Amino acid sequence: MNVDVLVVGAGPAGSIAAMEFARRGYDTLVVEKKQEIGPPKRCAEGVSQNGLDTVGLDVDMDVHHRIEGASLYAPSGKRVDMTGGDMFGYVLERKVFEKQLASQAINAGASCLVDTQALDMHRSNGRWAVRLRGLEGEREVHARLVIGADGVESKVGRWAGFQSVNRLTDYHSGIQYEMANVNVDPGHIHLFFGTRVAPLGYAWIFPKRFSANVGLGVLERNAEMSAHGYLRRFIDSNPDIFAGASPIEINAGGVPVNHFTEMVGDGVMLVGDAAQLVNPIHGGGIIRAMHSSQIAAEIAEPALANDDLSRERLGGYVRRWNELYEEKTAKLLKLRAFLEKLEDKDFELLADILEGEDIFELSQARISFFIKKMLKRPSLLGLAKKYLTD
Domain for residue 320, yes or no? Predict the structure, then answer.
């Protein structure tokens, strides 16, 4: 079986990639190892309106839940509300959203195989020979270009010879319940900070149309118990929120919060979580995943047309990504280093300083503004100067 493009993985990144290549007229096959596209979801499912605008997508408001703000909670329970700008968005139903994206890819001309696992791949006559196993047994597909969209545990990159191993310190352990009957403001997402809540991480509540995603991420080298233990304690410590609530789904896994992976090789490109293209503060990656696939297709289109799928030619994908995201990601990494040094008393001071300011808008002017406010807070000022400035 010969195709122009083989996409491994049918999450948001994979389906967008399949749709982009198919609508450009390339013979495209996407394979998904799971029996169903969508579940399980290891994701709080939040996206901003600005992010959706970036990738040019609309969402179905009859399915997805509108969010108009965010509420941040210091260890004492002090609440800081933020509205406007990037706070507008949605909490998706990814099980529906991913099927919609896959359907759009198929409508554009792509083929899709579910319950089909990529077993290995190797170079053969200038193409990738990829061995697949599905309901009808094993087969081999020869592809001019392979798109690795197979998530944080990506094997495509390793088969292509990429150096894709991260340090354990660059992964957070995450666990999430989807719960019914959670009592919070349904128009806000809710983020909880503190070493007792989630050391070097945070807990979240993302309301949905009939339920809420309740989870947390921790860096376990600083943890006294498992992520599940922290989540149970968080729920038990907030009876006003969770009295009468029960889980209807549980998911857990590792979340990369740094980017060390190579993204391109001869005839291969990694997108989304496979390339670890997540926000290093909160680990969110839906928008970045879809945008990376759009950029990859834009760069690969002339490479396919000219039959030059060399690492050098496809390297335009990396250069374009860095033009758009490198500076922003570097600032977020600085913020991550700053936040990881905070103690509970520092979170309290930070909550007093913020009073509704958006800490995620890290322009140089915003950083300078924070430092000026911190002049009377020596413990925070020292950290801010060290981690938020050059």
Answer: no
List the single range of 85-94, 111-120, 299-308, 381-390 with lowest mean pLDDT. 381-390
Tell me the residue range of the domain where 38 lies.
Answer: 2-43+94-166+259-314
Q: Which among 301, 304, 316, 271 has a CA at the least distance from the CA of 126?
A: 304
With 80 as the cut, is the pLDDT of residue 303 above it? yes
* Entry pTM: 0.86
Regarding whether 210 and 268 lie in a shared domain, the answer is no
Residue pair 208/177 in contact by the 8 Å Cβ criterion: no
Please tell me whether residues 349 and 365 are part of one structural domain: yes
Considering the domain boundaries, does residue 366 fall inside one?
yes
Tell me if 62 is assigned to some domain: no
Same domain, 223 and 161: no
Classify residue 342 by its DSSP letter: -
Burial 361-385, CB ≥16 within 10 A → b, else e: ebeeebbeebeebbeebeebbebbe
Question: How far apart are alpha carbons 335 and 356 in whole angstroms?
Answer: 18
What is the Cα Rg of the chain in Å?
22
Calpha distance 234→244 (Å, rounded): 15
189 vs 136: CA distance, rounded Å: 44
38 and 76 fall within a common domain: no
Distance CA 285, CA 253 (A): 14
| Secondary structure of residue 172 in the 3-state scheme | strand
d(C-alpha 34, C-alpha 2), whole Å:
23
pLDDT digits (tens, 9 = 90+) for 333-377: 776 666 666 666 766 666 665 554 444 444 444 445 555 555 455
* pLDDT surpasses 60 at 35: yes
Counting Cα atoms < 13 Å in the Cβ hemisphere of 300 gives 32
Whole-angstrom distance, CA of residue 34 vs CA of residue 135: 12
Residues 243 and 140 in one domain: no
- From CA 191, how far away is CA 240, in angstroms rounded? 16
Residue 319 lies inside a defined structural domain of this protein = no
Which is higher by pLDDT, 316 or 389?
Answer: 316
The count of C-alpha atoms lying within 13 angstroms of the C-alpha of 204, restricted to the half-sphere facing its C-beta, is 25
